[in-house]
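ok so for the tutorial part 2 we go from a plain amino acid sequence to predicted structure tokens. step 1 is just haveing the sequence, like this:
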Amino acid sequence: MLEVRHLTKRFGGLAAVNDVSLTLNKGEILGLIGPNGAGKTTFFNCVAGAMQPSEGQVFLEGRELTGKKAHDVCRAGIGRTYQIVKPFGKLSVRDNVVVGALNQTRHVAEARRIADEALELTGLADQRDVLAASMPLPRRKRLEIARALATGPKILLLDEVMAGLNPSEVELAIELIKKLRSSGIAILIIEHLMRVITSVSDRIVVMHHGEKLAEGAPSAVMNDRKVVEAYLGEGFIAQD
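step 2 — the prediction. this is what the tokens look like for a chain of 240 residues:
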């Protein structure tokens, strides 16, 4: 569904992303990992249209999206979340998600129906009338996913949706991600929690210093000597 060819993003003389290519298949979860500063979020920004790449191409189902603005990329079918969640604090949970649903329709009643479906799927239906500003972090994370989901994505880019969650909240988030995949959405996820990445990902891509360091099945990547040295550390041993 998604094909990224030789993506590069330069800031002056610094290549934050350097010649990275990857594919994401229908119904697949692809994990994107690497040290802080590896270029993962910059890669997301270029794919989603928040930044324009210096070089390279982005295709969704064969249609080129390179150079498109973020709202056009979203309408084409790529939704995303952000590391730092920033809901519209003075709006209700439901109205926050309606904002995302208006990407699909201009009719408010239809947008509310779409929003209610997204809230049901993400476990926030009973919070629909709560002001977003009053929600704790775990629910804000779910709200971020619900709003992205309401845009009608074929592909969802999830940027560290587990950060700041406790173990039980992480387990709930893992189940949500699996549920999203079963609904037919392909997922590209950035995450630092290795037990999350290994449990949900079909494949993993590792970035380091802006470049693709490794790619493959979770067990193979986790035991790759280059990945251990650059990111995981000698104390990490992946289990099949």
